[in-house]
């Protein structure tokens, strides 16, 4: 840390992303990514003559991508803001709306980045505990007047709140913002995007890193009322006008349009999720009902920390959170069928060793 | 603007990038871009099997790209910070070091983004006038204790300050930061990057949007002491850990390594610049000595505003700044030889019409 860094960052605790070790070839099930390929249309764009024109700046408004997203979600283009991953979208959103005087809240068990953000920017952030059964305590969000950040489905639990419950929070106080992070919405859930036409205090954040198989391209967006989007564009134009480059605009558009391909991929993930859940339950695991591309599991005789270490020894990376309420749970991303069969096979070996 | 936007942004004036009109095919010489292709190595990477793996997150440390940049500039990898364009690098830098209590300064005539930034984030920004001849008043920067932001070469003037002059500013006060934006350094000038090994208050910012023919990929970086880079990475990890996606890491690395290709492109731009300068002078223009990929020109009988409008009618876009001291100057990007021949031909027509 240099002597020049602003005082307010002295307590900065950076977010620790899922590790990317290179010491051997791992089956990576620790960051809710996928080894499935992007849409063939995405790969075509990367090979197209458009790339010869990279000497020119991209459209700073990213209209092509925003139009495609708007059509997919049945909203106006001016209701769409795009960024380099949903993290950047959240970043602009935090910059625009929250400062040292702001009060926000989010669950105690959720995507760790909200807390990192709040700490970095000196925002008064309160963790509202999930209920005993790890579901979101909707009444607590209705009662508080703090701005709300909720991941829905939540991570790492995988639980989904129906749109009517989100709406209860949104209507309860029109003078605070409600940010719903729908990173995992595509795995069989209903989005609350239609509510953005009715309420001007709701922002719905999406990512292409999960269901579009594009974590490595890191494209995210949010949908909200036109006024909120105008704010975000204002901040973006003051911070990084060309934040989306022409490659991400082009491949993002291609991905958004290829719904048929991704529908197939998503169905495969859902099938593999149910297969994995079923198999692990046969081995005595409790597997939380997941509405996402990961599962959150616990076992009566095998501590999650040990399970994680053993999986790693066998070349499989999962995500362990060393946090009080969930220290005996492990989050495992759902990969291809072959990858999940490997998980089951290795798990049975680990359990056998335990008995021996 | 929504009711939720923080009070401090109410006076926000967004940066206006060079326009990207699509009503016809223009020769675009208004944003210091290029119609030259990126390196063939860049295009190869985009077609390679690496792109099949976009389902996985990129290395959040972007080590591959930072290593290539470090080797090119003969510094340590930990002295390199990368971002989505030099604007984003400047953005993180402003977030890290400047707030409402900070005092910064920059020339009255320079890249408009510094002023936009200062206004957006409520930083006390002072414009120090260029001298009568449009050169930087180095003594004024030595005397002030404000943090310094200087573009070198400067835009839109095109003038370059030698490293010894930069060093004078840097040593004059080790307790303030000096940020040197070397966006146009590659067009025949000496970089002050070596000074970063000697001084811990210097940050040198580079972009691949100009001399690497990659405006559309929007990749930038800065080089400074390891402690300053540690600060910037901390902010980045709290704001957008995966800010560089795997595509930009891959093509940025390929571009940095293909020095032979870009050396040729740069030489072509320099040749075209001298050709254009020479031709315009023959037509009575005064052309400031440029150390960049653009020229700044004025004519005794043709007002710059009119010259700009006429060029546009003929399908050529240049950049006019409606600002007091430079309102009779026009900035023209140096393109390919064919594009510059067209500029000269059209200019001669415009001047003929004037006489008629």
UniProtKB/TrEMBL annotation, chains A, B:
Q: Which InterPro entries did the record assign?
A: Aminotransferase_I/II_large, HisP_aminotrans, HistidinolP_aminotransfase, PyrdxlP-dep_Trfase, PyrdxlP-dep_Trfase_major, PyrdxlP-dep_Trfase_small
Known catalytic reactions: L-histidinol phosphate + 2-oxoglutarate = 3-(imidazol-4-yl)-2-oxopropyl phosphate + L-glutamate
According to UniProt, this protein's pathway is: Amino-acid biosynthesis; L-histidine biosynthesis; L-histidine from 5-phospho-alpha-D-ribose 1-diphosphate: step 7/9
Q: What does this protein need as cofactor? A: pyridoxal 5'-phosphate
Sites of the modification N6-(pyridoxal phosphate)lysine? 210
Give residue ranges for domain Aminotransferase class I/classII large: 26-344
Query: What is the protein's quaternary organization?
Result: Homodimer.
Q: Which family does it belong to?
A: Belongs to the class-II pyridoxal-phosphate-dependent aminotransferase family. Histidinol-phosphate aminotransferase subfamily.
Question: What is the recorded name of this protein?
Answer: Histidinol-phosphate aminotransferase
Organism, scientific name: Anaeromicropila herbilytica
Lineage of source species: Bacteria, Bacillati, Bacillota, Clostridia, Lachnospirales
Q: Which gene encodes it?
A: hisC_2
